[in-house]
Amino acid sequence: MDEIRGTAQGTAPVPLSVLDLVTVGAGRTATDALRTSVALSRLTESRGYHRFWVAEHHSMPGVASSSPAVILAHLAAHTERIRLGSGGVMLPNHAPLVIAEQFGTLEALAPGRVDLGLGRAPGTDGATAAALRRTDRLNEGADDFPEQLAELTRFLDDDFPDGHPYSRIHAVPGPVQSTSPGGVQSPHRPPIWLLGSSGFSARLAGMLGLPFAFAHHFSAQNTVPALDLYRESFRPSAVLDAPYALIGVAALATDEEKEARRQVRAAALNMLRLRMGRPGLVPTPEEAEAHEFGPLEQEFFESWTANVIHGTADEVRAGLDDLQKRTGADELMLTSNAHGGDVRVRSYELIADAYGLPTA
Fold first, then answer.
1. Which residues contact residue 310 at a Cβ distance below 8 angstroms, ignoring those fewer than 6 apart?
2. Is the pTM of this model over 0.85?
3. How many beta carbons lie within 10 A of that of residue 123, not counting itself?
4. Contact at 8 Å (CB) between 108 and 69?
5. Would you place residue 88 in the very low, low, confident or very high pLDDT band (cuts 50, 70, 90)?
6. C-alpha separations of 271 from 23, 56, 123, 249 in Å
7. For the segment 150-208, what is each residue's pLDDT rounded down to a tens digit?
8. Sign of the dihedral defined by the CA atoms of residues 322, 326, 329, 334, in that order
């Protein structure tokens, strides 16, 4: 349980964590974005953030996080303490054995600080999902999620029963190594989190006694109902004796309120283009300022930005405090979406300062 529950630092009401989308701005490269991710992981580790997750997305020019395991291995080499994980791996896109092997390898690289967050959405459009899964029967993958989850868990624990077709198959690195002559295996196993933006994963996480992460940053209207469902459905397990839920929150702090509005406008334009089937690089604030939103676009802009906590550090702190009180979330996982990596790094620094988080 200590691997799941964090400890609030400074004056923060709950532990603060990071969800990094490895965003790529116009005029920048994926290399630039990944260097920003390293800088963010090192900064947030030094300032007392609890965990640093990366998400799986595909076929989006402005999001360079198509391979979470690869990125996490790189971050593990540049950090020492902060928990690292997926927020999340889209399980229907992969064979469970592959994920068990990848995260067993990550656990060997960073013992005791790897999280395995799982989702059942494709993390992309239907055509790309079909290419990933080598099938156009996409609903089948989502419907089979509980069975895929059970299979993955057995690979991680190496406990298929005798007679099962996979009983002689082992995910390596993994527990089987401790049963080999002279074998010694790490006592740690990446804890599984279920991710969701609706009630399905909330109920499943509760029934299985697993920690739950809800995507408030793009499904705010469902946050409280989903958390209520998770808590009502919760059954104690070997993993948790009580519910533990974090929520993903879009938050951006800047030195001046006006700059926060400029950056969020650019992020909103990027999201608008994605929703219209025209994903691209995150536009510059200057491009966003020059863009004239039509009536429907303006409606989307206002709806989307209403769920982004932005402004000065004090304004963001007040917004986060209010959100935590309203939802009762056990942890806040902050995600910043801005054109420049320097803006994102500065945002996490300002929020840390606002809460008096450690400086080393």
1. 251, 252, 253, 254, 260, 261, 263, 264, 316
2. yes
3. 23
4. no
5. confident
6. 12, 17, 14, 15
7. 999 999 999 999 999 999 999 999 988 887 777 677 767 899 999 999 899 999 999 99
8. negative
